[in-house]
């Protein structure tokens, strides 16, 4: 859906002090307004690919739906940049909760940072997935090799749904949150079980990213980038294994290392 092509832009490229005029491929940035049950719900800026996945994943992550079966219809007006979605749920209460902060009294102190809809949808992860360090290195390399748009433009984030033995679904977007929503939407639309799944990711591990992974239910997030302190506190509370700075033959395991085979041997 939408304009899936990147743009060619004329640039002056320098090598040292020598210059040449050439065309450079630029990642497409596309505003999309979501109309939910006839009301304007949100406007997101995204890459115009895999939009059905993006929309379903976004609504699930925001607590508007729990399964794909709750969606009655979905259509996208590519020319105007509008998505029209009808769901079975009554949305008045959901709209009221959408941006309210939630102060929790349970478990970890970091849960006070949840928005109210996050508290309803970001559940503690009990995945029993187990992965070796070498498998982590291989998965990150697979993500890099399958990221053709990043290699062309350098302007997008990539997320993959994977099992320890390999990557099998990759989604790309200019927004790292959108890339994760596309993965979530793909899982819901195709009824893919989360058991023994992990997410391989190119972006920084913020608190929002950790919450999205918890909503998906995957036990491990593997990224080449760095986490934030709040992300790690949330991940620790939610029993999510966070692996960052996975580059080459190095990586850092920040939370719940019991899912790493080599860490199990050391205990």
UniProtKB/TrEMBL annotation:
Entry's Gene Ontology BP terms: Mo-molybdopterin cofactor biosynthetic process
InterPro entries, per the entry: Cytidine_deaminase-like (IPR016193), FdhD (IPR003786)
Record keyword Cytoplasm present: yes
Main function: Required for formate dehydrogenase (FDH) activity. Acts as a sulfur carrier protein that transfers sulfur from IscS to the molybdenum cofactor prior to its insertion into FDH.
Family (UniProt): Belongs to the FdhD family.
UniProt-annotated catalytic positions: 107
GO cellular component, one term: cytoplasm
Subcellular location: Cytoplasm
Organism: Lentibacillus cibarius
Main location: cytoplasm
Binding annotation for Mo-bis(molybdopterin guanine dinucleotide): 245-250
Pfam families registered for this protein in UniProt: FdhD-NarQ
SUPFAM superfamilies, sorted: Cytidine deaminase-like (SSF53927)
GO MF annotations, alphabetized: sulfur carrier activity; sulfurtransferase activity
Protein known as: Sulfur carrier protein FdhD
Alphabetically ordered keywords of this record: Cytoplasm, Molybdenum cofactor biosynthesis, Transferase
């Amino acid at each position: 859906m939408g304009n899936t092509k990147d743009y060619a832009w004329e640039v002056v490229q320098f090598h040292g002090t020598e210059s040449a005029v050439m065309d450079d491929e630029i990642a497409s940035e596309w505003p999309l307004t979501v109309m939910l049950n006839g009301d304007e719900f949100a406007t997101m800026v995204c890459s115009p690919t895999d939009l059905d996945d993006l929309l379903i994943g976004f609504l699930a992550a925001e607590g508007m739906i729990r399964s794909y079966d709750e969606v009655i219809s979905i259509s996208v007006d590519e020319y105007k940049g509008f998505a029209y979605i009808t769901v079975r749920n009554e949305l008045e209460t959901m709209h009221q909760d959408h941006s309210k902060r939630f102060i929790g009294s349970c478990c970890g102190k970091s849960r006070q940072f949840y928005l109210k809809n996050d508290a309803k949808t970001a559940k503690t992860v009990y995945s029993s997935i187990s992965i070796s360090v070498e498998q982590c290195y291989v998965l990150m390399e697979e993500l890099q090799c399958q990221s053709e748009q990043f290699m062309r433009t350098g302007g997008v984030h990539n997320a993959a749904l994977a099992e320890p033995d390999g990557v099998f679904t990759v989604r790309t977007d200019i927004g790292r949150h959108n890339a994760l929503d596309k993965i979530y939407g793909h899982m819901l639309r195709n009824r893919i079980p989360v058991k023994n799944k992990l997410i391989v990711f190119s972006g920084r591990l913020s608190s929002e990213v950790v919450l999205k992974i918890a909503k998906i239910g995957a036990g491990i997030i593997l990224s080449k980038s760095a986490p934030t302190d709040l992300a790690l506190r949330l991940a620790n509370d939610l029993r999510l294994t966070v692996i960052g700075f996975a580059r080459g033959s190095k990586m850092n395991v920040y939370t719940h290392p019991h899912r790493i085979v080599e860490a199990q041997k050391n205990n």
